[in-house]
Structure formats: C-alpha cells, structure tokens
Write a structure and sequence with these properties.
The complex is a heterodimer of chains A (320) and B (256). Helix content of chain A is 36%, strand content 30%. By secondary structure, chain A is of the alpha/beta class. In chain A, a hairpin with a 2-residue loop joins strand 1 and strand 2. Chain B has one domain (16-253). Chain B has helices at 19-31, 35-53, 62-88, 94-99, 101-106, 112-147, 153-180, 184-200, 207-211, 230-253. The chains are: A alpha/beta (320), B mainly alpha (256).
C-alpha cells in the first residue's frame, strides 16, 4: 500500500459545489510521503472541504483523489484504516473519559486483546501528557486538553497519514508549542497533512506547502523553493555620506520596487524591495558603489518570510 | 515516541465495519452506567405505580381482575414508553450531526450502515428491556397478587411482545426522522403527534387505515391476542423495515 516514491495524496481535478457555490475548484494536489505538508489559505478557501472529501465525509462534485493509491470514493473505509484525523473543533462524547475515548477509537482499528489495546492507549496518554487526566470526564476539559486528546485519538492507531485541520488554531502559545512538538515527533512514523492559517508554525515545521484561495490551488511547492521564488527579496543597506544621487540611480532600475529610507545621525538606512532577485544580487551593490561619496557600511539580503510570500500570493490571486 | 511495538492485527474490511464497537458503546450508555437503574426506577414509578392505584383490584371475580388489570396495564405500556422514547431518543442522530461527533466517528474505518444499525440496536435493546420487559414482569406479579394467584402467562407475555413491536415501530420512526431532519423538534414531535392523533381519531378513521398503522395493535388492551388483525401484524413490521431502509439510504447521502 505504501510504495516508496508514490505520493500519499494525489488529487486530480477534485471539485466540490454546494448549490451554486463552488467550494473547491479543480484541485490537483500531490502530498509526498513522510512530509509535513502545510495546507494554507484564508478562511473559506476550501481547506476543510478538501479534508472532508479526502475522508469520505462529503462526496466530490467532480474529479477525484487517491490516498495510498486507493480511490477516496470507492475505498474510503480501507483508506481510513490508515489515517488519523483531528477535526477543526474536536468534539467527543462528553460522558466518556479520555481513556474511554481512546479505547473507543482504538477498537475501530485493532482486534487485539484488551490488554494490548489498553497498553497502546496508556502509551498514547503518556505521550500526549494526558495520563493524569485520563479518567476524568471530557466535559471538564480545557480547550488545550481537548486539542491534545484530539491529537492523541488521531494517532492511537499509528497512522501512515495524519490529517489535522487547524491543529493549533484555538491554543495559547504553550499549547501551540506542545502541538508542534507532537507533530515533529510524529513525522518519523507518519505523513502529516495539516491545514492552518498560522504561518509562523508552517515555516517552522513544514517541508512543503500548498496555498488555496477561493477554492483554487494557487501554488504548491517545497517551502524553501516557495520562499526563494517569491520574487520579493529585500535588501537592508546601511550607508554613510551623500546618498541622494545613488538613490536616484537605484530607484530608476526596473527591478526595484521601492526603497524605504530612514536616517540616524550620519547613517542612512535603505530597505530596497526588488522584483528580480538575480538582477539585484548582480547589480545593486555596484550601482551604489559607483558614487565614491557613499560608503556602504552594511549590505544584507533578507529572505522574505512566509507571511509576506503568502500575502503576496493571495493578493495576486484576489486580483484575478 | 515511546513505542512498544504491539502487534495488533488490523481489522478486516467489512460492510458493517465498526458496528460492534458502536453497538457496545451505545449499550454501555444504558447498561454500563447507573442510567439503567435510574430509568428502571422512573419507569417502575410511572407505569407500575399507576397499575397499583388502578381500581381493578376491587373487581368482583378473579377473571375480571385479570382482564381489567391487563387492559389497564397494556393501555399504559402502549402510550407512556412511546412518549418517553420520543423525548429521550430525539437526539440519537440529530445531536451527533449537530455536535460533529458523527463526522468524527465516520472519519474512522466505520461504514455508515454500521453507524445507523448500531445506534438502532444499541438503544433499542436496553429500551425494550427497561421500558417494556421489566415493567411487564412487575405488572404480571401485581395483577397476580390482586387476583390472589398466578394466571396463564401466555396471553400476558404475548401481549408484551406486541407492546415491544409497538415500541420498535416508534423507535424506527425516530431513527428515520433523525436522518431526515437537522433539528430535534420534528424528531420528537412527529411520533408524539402520530401516537396521540391515532388514539384520538380512532373512532373517526376508517378501520382499514387503523389496521395498517400501529394503532391497530391497541386491540390487545381490550381483547385477546387473536383480536389483532393479521394485516396489522404484517404491515407494522413492514413499516419498521421501510423506516430502517430509508434511514440507511438517507444517511449514505448525508454530507458532513
């Protein structure tokens, strides 16, 4: 089932329409094995719809997808045997304890003895730091505890694919850190496909991302490639001397988007935003150095962060 | 990850994948907690205390005591449990759709058929045991005490079987309504309106209509088991099958 080299998720033209509203439009998505794959997009972009289609909770209006090479509409139960899923707002039976919930979930996957299942449940409770709350009814759990239980139940079957829908959205910074740590641990066993709009987290742990906007896939790529290709590299430059001539020369270049200027004492600070990284790397510094009255004290290219890249991509998509 | 590498066998694929697990969980809600005791006491109080205070105890002959006692008991047992069931079971499917627990369970290797059938049987069996069987057993001894000795049990427990069929009809109806509606109101309201409507309009509705409805089973209150029209005994189970099939069909189409 898990052939090396084959993508875990492979969707072709996957679409979903509700009445006349297109929630998902022709999604072609490839999620490589053993990756942490961030599925990004603003609210209402179609992330949760995609996850529901992959899990068989909704039926595609068009196209299709395969998970582990199995068709999501024809072989959904077989697929779900190897998946762990954390919903966006996890809801469990409130009369159950955490231990009973994990037991309940584990029994869908295993036909082993009670002792073996209990051992697996205990192991999961320990791993997620829920052992001391294991026998309390869930209805008294805090949001963070519920989220940890959500991750625990999603991985009690040691799934080959973990699908997490906004796993850290409702958590405080400590809860978020715990969730991200858990994801890092789980990557050794599972491919992790998760939706989020918290971009700091994505940049920290993801290998690859796909960006969805208004139901359409805008881009998908390994995260480093996405950042490198974003085309909005910025240079932080510290100068001394008369900079006005150099400023005119630089701003006239087609590949210069804008220059933010500030001064402090004798120093002038430039933040030069460019659209063509190669041209800037080759020409920007020589253009400044032509002017002998200017001394370059510091010249630092800044890699854009994912948030800028995301906003720029989504912004472009919105203008279509 | 502290992994002990337990070699648990994955379950094999089946059309009713997950049935056993959900069935156990549903049954345990009744029988694995104090709920069975609380419900048993409530229904003992509601049904058998009414039998206790009914005036059949003073009837002139032993046969009259038995007949009037059975008439009174079966009238109660055909009405009260249905009202209780409609209120208690209104959320059996709707609440799970609303809260998201249905979607959560169905994200596991669980077939939708298994989900519906496990909800149906997992709640049906405890409801029958607590609301009908237990109360019938107690009522039998109450009537026997009033009559001054045991009386033939076949008629009595045969009628208990009819009362179980009556409850089964409404349980299946509630299940189907749960799959058709997204809110609780109609799920609880329609069975109650149907029950009371059929009771009130018994005299004005054509007998053919009564015979194809669960109201046809009410003849056991005043007559023997043989007084039930055979058509009713065929049509009511057919309704139950139709309700369950519609539930399965509708739930297959549900999107979460």
């Amino acid at each position: 089932m898990h052939n090396d080299g084959n993508p875990v998720i492979d969707s072709r033209g996957l679409s979903k329409t509700y009445s006349k509203v297109t929630a998902l439009d022709q999604l072609d998505l490839i999620v490589p094995r053993n990756s942490i794959f961030g599925f990004l997009g603003p609210n209402g972009a179609g992330k949760t719809t995609t996850i529901k289609l992959l899990l068989g909770l909704a039926k595609p209006s068009g196209g299709g997808a395969r998970i582990f090479g199995l068709d999501i509409t024809q072989e959904s139960i077989n697929i779900r045997k190897h998946i762990g899923y954390l919903p966006q707002n996890p809801r469990f039976y409130p009369y159950m304890t955490a231990r009973q919930t994990l037991n309940f979930v584990a029994r869908f996957f295993y036909s082993g003895t009670s002792r073996e299942i209990k051992q697996r449940v205990q192991e999961t409770l320990d791993l997620m730091g829920l052992a001391d709350k294991a026998d309390r009814p869930i209805k008294g759990f805090s949001g963070g505890e519920l989220q940890r239980l959500g991750i625990a139940q999603a991985q009690v079957n040691q799934p080959a694919l973990l699908i997490l829908d906004e796993p850290a959205a409702s958590l405080d910074p400590l809860g978020r850190r715990d969730v991200l740590d858990a994801m890092e641990r789980l990557r050794h066993h599972s491919t992790i496909f998760y939706s989020t709009h918290i971009l700091d987290d994505v940049q920290r742990i993801s290998d690859a991302v796909a960006i969805l906007n208004r139901g359409k896939l805008v881009t998908q790529a390994p995260i480093q490639k996405l950042l490198a290709d974003s085309g909005s590299l910025e240079f932080d430059i510290v100068l001394r001397g008369a900079t006005s001539v150099a400023y005119e020369r630089v701003i006239d270049q087609q590949w210069v988007q804008n220059i933010a200027v500030s001064t402090q004492g004798e120093q002038t600070f430039w933040q030069v935003k460019v659209t063509d990284t190669e041209a800037a790397e080759e020409k920007l510094l020589p253009l400044i150095l032509v002017d002998r009255s200017v001394v370059v004290q510091s010249f630092m290219p800044q890699q854009p962060d994912l948030e800028e890249t995301f906003l720029s991509i989504i912004g472009e998509g919105s203008n279509d | 990850m502290t992994d002990t590498h337990i070699h648990m066998k994955p379950k094999v694929n089946m059309r009713l994948a997950g049935f056993g697990n959900i069935f156990r969980s549903e049954s345990r809600k009744w029988l694995g907690t104090r709920r069975w005791l609380i419900q048993s006491l409530i229904w003992l109080f509601m049904v058998n205390s009414l039998v206790m205070v009914a005036d059949f105890w003073s009837a002139e002959s032993r046969e009259a005591i038995v007949n009037r006692g059975m008439e009174f008991f079966f009238l109660i047992i055909l009405i009260l449990p249905i009202l209780g069931l409609s209120i208690m079971m209104q959320g059996i499917i709707v609440a799970e759709k609303q809260s998201g627990t249905a979607a959560w369970v169905l994200s596991k290797p669980v077939s939708r058929k298994a989900f519906i059938l496990a909800k149906f049987f997992g709640n049906l069996i405890p409801a029958l045991l607590i609301m009908i069987v237990l109360q019938s057993g107690v009522a039998y001894f109450q009537i026997a005490t009033a009559a001054g000795g045991m009386f033939p049990a076949i008629q009595f427990f045969g009628k208990t079987g009819v009362a179980m069929l009556h409850l089964l009809f409404y349980h299946a109806l509630i299940l189907m309504l749960g799959t058709l509606f997204q809110v609780r109101g109609p799920v609880a309201g329609i069975p109650i309106v149907l029950l009371l409507g059929l009771l009130i309009s018994d005299e004005i509705l054509p007998s053919a209509l009564i015979d194809i409805s669960p109201a046809g089973l009410f003849t056991i209150t005043s007559g023997s088991l043989a007084s039930i029209n055979p058509v009713t005994l065929v049509v009511v189970p057919s309704w139950i099958i139709v309700f369950v099939l519609v539930s399965l069909w509708r739930f297959e189409k549900e999107e979460f």
